[in-house]
Amino acid sequence: MRSSAGFFLCSLLLLTAHCTQAADPEVQPDPKTPCANWMGGAPGYPGHNGVPGRDGKDGRDGLKGEKGEEGIQGPKGDQGETGIPGSEGPRGFPGQPGQKGEKGEGSFVHRSAFSVGLTERAPHPNVPIRFTKIFYNEQNHYDATTGKFVCSISGTYYFAYHLTVYLSDVKVSLYKKDKAVIFTYDQFQKNNVDQASGSVLLHLNSGDEVWLQVYGDGENNGVYADNINDSTFMGFLLYPDLDVH
């Protein structure tokens, strides 16, 4: 028994020395030799996948690319709501004057006016005084042959007269449709020239006549006119009747 144990121990020492020499760091053992697989275990199982790593930092921007081709124009959108008016801008410079326009009609389309004077002395009483010196009678509404103003436009009129008195007293009346409306009397003073005047507003209808005449007998017809003294009669339309015109 001692011989067998000694023999086994000797064999083990020899085998260890032989394997130690074979493990020289410069000489790799053959993986197929018995010493390479001596004390080697069975292959292990593959491990699990590791956890994904963190995202890396963004890289630097590259160079700017070339401009692409223009795309097709899209359809017109709906009109938006009106915005709030902006603040007023600065006032501009005055523009050049425009061309002169054509003459328009006046605001008062209806016109009627006359102004006349006396040319003869001592007119006859109880008949219209004929004022034949025409200062203004553009519409011909005053008839110098009869001494009467004939209304053509219904409305409100203003009449006035200024008479020179000489040689005798004067008493005159302004008539409308054969009826005296106002009277004016002036007493003559010897060696003097006096004035008699009067005025009135009247409403006239188309066709009405207005005139001035000496009232009474022939002793009151001192209405006078010469080269340096005038006796005048005038009238004009203030405004027409709105319901007619």
TrEMBL record:
SMART domains: C1Q (SM00110)
InterPro entries the record matches: C1q_dom, Collagen, Collagen/C1q_domain, Tumour_necrosis_fac-like_dom
Keywords: Collagen, Hydroxylation, Secreted, Signal
Signal as UniProt keyword: yes
Signal peptide: 1-22
Location of region: Disordered: 24-106
GO CC annotation: collagen trimer; extracellular region
C1q domain residues: 107-244
Compartment(s): Secreted
Protein name, as recorded: ADIPO protein
Lineage: Eukaryota, Metazoa, Chordata, Craniata, Vertebrata
